[in-house]
Amino acid sequence: MFPPEMRTDPYPIYRQLRENAPIFDTGQDLWLVTSYEHAYALLRDPRSSKNLRNMDDYENRMELAGRTAPMRALLEQLMSFNDAPDHTRIRGRFQRAFSPRLVQRLRDHATEIAEDLLGRAPADGEIDLVADFAWQFPLVLVAEMLGVPTSDRERFHAWSRDLAPAFELVASPEVGETALRAAGEFVAYFEELLAERERAPQNDLVSGLLNAEGDADRLSEKEMVVNLILILAAGHETVMNLIGNGTLALLRHPDQLELLRSRPELLDDAVEELMRYDCPIQLTTRIATEEIEMAGQTIPKGARMAISLAAANRDPDRFPDPDRLDLTRGDRNHLALGGGVHYCLGTALARIEAAVAFRTLLDRYERIELVTETVEYRDTVLLRGVKALPLRVSAAQA
Ligand code: HEM
Fold it and tell me: Residue whose CA is closest, atom 32 of ligand 1?
């Protein structure tokens, strides 16, 4: 569906699309939204639904997109593919289990975990930031949050890697099968964990979820399990990609890297700007529940809209000189974390993790250089991230 440059450098394509038509009819019942104004509005529009069943010719289109019946059954239970009242109920339950106390505990541990992981990577010479650090760091934290043993991280990594391509706009039958197998193993794992926590509650998110039984926002076991998978996958893939994309952006803008070294107080703004500049979730979809007239277009009822968060984040009408990485921009209203009722549930944790990751990396190494300018991206278009990031490093003197 998309040309290969959508993986390597999609931004010139987004610019062209936006200049041509901020809402673009692909002719495949898919409307691509690339301007900030319209992306922002549609994320909050009550006529924009996440429920796939509002799609015209749902079953047929889902088959065409490679979503088999078991995969559809799984997707339909995720908070991210539901509208109110189910979305409100499921999200509310998770939000309460995701308590500020839990986030504070993770904040306290994040630096320790990052220092430990980077401490195992060579002090001088070559490292691969993805293999040596970026995939493990968010996974260890999200595992700790959920209360699953971090020693299972290899399994989670493999499962979420197999599952992620199933969220693309179109998935091949092989991708669908692999994803379903991973989902089945994930489900069995979390079912067992739920049973264990029921017997012996701990101070973690899973026990917090079970604790609320009897409340108005009661969840079925299936809903808990599939949404735990969502949290694990969403909390892992995105932060991993932000660490990779963000480090690459800093290395390609040495003045900004130096600025961050000399003014550490810019760290939180730097995280926001790195998310805006090259965001880990490039686009999200909605279904029009009514005909929508916008930007001179008429989006028919039942059509799919692909809202490009990445393109919106580079819209010059919203961000002056949008292709420039500027850590002093001080603008948190980018769309990298979405908008409206589906706004990222893990925002607080994502910001903590990213800040700790960049700070620990810069503290550990006084010199960081790219080994090669040619970077290979993962095969997904919806999720954007480097496969590997080989770096030449020298440790800072203690
Ligand atoms: C840099 C890191 C992250 C980025 C860029 C990111 C981005 C996003 C975006 C764009 C959405 C909204 C999608 C939509 O509107 O359709 C979203 C939703 C979500 N995110 Fe994140 N995310 C990040 C980290 C996390 C973390 C750490 C967690 C959990 C531990 C998490 C859990 C979720 C969940 C559960 C949703 C679904 C919310 C809903 O549908 O109501 N995310 N994220």
Answer: 346
E strands in the chain: 23-25, 30-33, 48-49, 124-128, 283-288, 292-294, 297-299, 304-308, 365-370, 390-395
Ligand 1 atom 40: residue of nearest CA: 80
Q: Which domains does the chain have, with CATH numbers?
A: 5-395 (1.10.630.10)
Between CA 25 and CA 288 the distance in angstroms is 14
Residue 165 has pLDDT above 90, yes or no: no
Q: What separation in Å is there between the alpha carbon of 177 and the centre of ligand 1?
A: 24
What atom in ligand 1 is closest to the CA of residue 285?
16
Report field, pTM of the whole predicted structure over 0.90: yes
State whether the beta carbon of 352 lies less than 6 angstroms from ligand 1.
no
State mean pLDDT over 139-168. Answer: 86
Summarize pLDDT for 30-52 with one digit per residue, the tens: 999 999 999 999 999 999 999 99
Instruction: Give bridge partners of residue 307 from the DSSP assignment.
Output: 33, 284
Q: Is the dihedral of CA 4, 5, 10, 12 positive or negative?
A: negative
**Nearest C-alpha to atom 11 of ligand 1 is from which residue?**
344
Ligand 1 atom 7, closest CA: 337
The dihedral over CA atoms of 117, 120, 124, 129, expressed in degrees to the nearest 10, equals -40
274 pocket-lining for ligand 1 (C-beta < 6 Å): no
State the Cα–Cα distance between residues 353 and 363, nearest whole angstrom: 15
Residues in Cβ contact with 372 at an 8 Å cutoff, skipping those fewer than 6 apart: 390
For 194-252, write each residue's pLDDT tens digit: 999 999 998 888 988 888 656 667 889 999 999 999 998 889 999 999 999 999 999 99
Distance 239 CA to ligand 1 centre (A): 10
Mutate to test the pocket of ligand 1, among 238, 334, 358 (most ligand atoms within 8 A of CB): 238
230: Cβ below 6 Å to ligand 1?
yes
Phi, psi of 48 (to 5 degrees): -95, 120
Q: What is the pLDDT of residue 338?
A: 98
Average pLDDT over all residues of the chain:
92
Backbone torsions φ then ψ of 343, nearest 5 degrees: -45, 140
- At 105 the pLDDT is 87
Please report, rounded to a whole number, the percentage of residues in the chain having pLDDT higher than 90.
70
Please identify, by atom number, the ligand 1 atom nearest to the C-alpha of residue 82.
40
DSSP state of 164: G
